[in-house]
Amino acid sequence: MNLFDVYPLFPINIVSGKGCKVYDDKGTEYLDVYGGHAVVSVGHAHPKYVKAISNQAAKLGFYSNSVINSLQEDFAKKLGIASGYDNYSLFLINSGAEANENALKLASFHNGRKKVLSFKKSFHGRTSAAVKVTDNPNYVAPVNEGLEVVFAELNDIDTVKELETQTYSSVIIEGVQGIGGIYTPDNQFMQELQRICSATNTVLILDEIQSGYGRSGKFFAHQYAGIKPDIITVAKGICNGFPMAGVLISPAFKAVHGQLGTTFGGNQLGCAGAIAVLEIMEEERLIENAGKVGDFLISELKKLPGIKEVRGLGLMIGMEFEQPVKEIRSKLLFEQKVFTGVAGAHIIRLLPPLSLSMEEAQEFLARLKMCL
Ligand SMILES: Cc1ncc(COP(=O)(O)O)c(C=O)c1O
After folding, report:
1. Can you tell me which atom of ligand 1 is nearest the CA of 97?
2. End of a domain among 261, 283, 305?
3. Cβ(125) – ligand 1 distance below 6 Å
4. CA torsion angle for 260, 178, 333, 328 (degrees, to 10)?
5. 125 C-beta neighbours (distance < 10 Å), count
6. If 0-12 CB within 10 Å is exposed, 13-18 middle and 19+ buried, where does residue 254 land?
7. Is 96 in the pocket of ligand 1 (CB under 6 A)?
């Protein structure tokens, strides 16, 4: 059987990793400032994480959500404390798209409305509602077209005044737009958006799937604006690569049996890994590290000639170039052995593990300079 050909692939077979390095099947070492697309949060093959997952697999990998799972409760408690949302509830599922799908459903169950306001350049996933609130018609199949969505301009409050019609169920917005090109909503815009949402009984959903979990230098990027959304979605870094995601839900929402559900979500193996991730983040002060190393990288990148603009927060960084970045990225990968990401044709995206050290950041800068 062939693989369905959905991705353009680099001819590199990555078979192992350690910290911020990955290795191919020939033993070549690469510096990973991509984190496997913002997923590897505490570093590849972190010993504490490996131990937690291995021990749990040897004990019990999975049992259904029809019985008490104390690992879910332990994880929820730890996540509440780490994020500052200990009075919120947690619903666990498997991927970012599913997290947003459930958030949009929950909002609609809550206020009985149908329409959603999203933003230009947004990305929220590939499932039915999540893809419809994503600003890219190429991803939307006819079968996804039922949901009515309006795309407003990020940081233009006039374009969200539409909410005053009181016909919108929810607004969905990324903490920092990732795939769209690393655009951060202004604090004042976020505060005003929250004010309009609460005045119009519209649910505010913060998609922190890429920008959250410590990457921005705070647990959530929206915490820079001092707001408290009604629903927050998380995925990617939550279990360092094991598929897991969560929906954090404000106390204003009432849980109703049967409305939401999942087979795999919150399984024992994932919870054991996710607990280890939070413990490692705390023990190694990785949020602080992301802020410090991210600030350093952003200020050093701004000094380099040939880069049109550097944007970002913490270890979520975009470098925009006048020219397409294909050649620079290829040189970085094949000559300098550095993995990076992109956002569109002109932006290189850096999403390394939160454990990236100052030395590794300097190493990246040295290798980048060789490609400019
Ligand atoms: C902001 C954001 N939301 C949602 C998703 C979808 O997550 P997943 O691919 O786990 O479904 C992504 C993935 O890149 C994302 O960056």
Report:
1. 11
2. 283
3. yes
4. 160
5. 23
6. exposed
7. yes
Residue 344 has a CB neighbour count (10 Å cut-off) of 14
6 lies in a domain? no
Residue identified by tokens 């006048």 is 322
How many domains is the chain partitioned into structurally?
A: 2
Question: Which residue range(s) make up the domain with 27?
Answer: 14-46+286-369
pLDDT in tens, 245-299: 999 999 999 999 999 999 999 999 999 999 999 999 999 999 999 999 999 999 9
Residue 4: inside a domain, yes or no? Answer: no
Same domain, 268 and 297: no
pLDDT tens readout for residues 106-146: 999 999 999 999 999 999 999 999 999 999 999 999 999 99
CA nearest ligand 1 atom 7, residue: 96
Query: What is the CATH number for 85?
Result: 3.40.640.10
State whether the beta carbon of 179 lies less than 6 angstroms from ligand 1: yes
Residue 177 to residue 179: CA distance in whole angstroms: 6
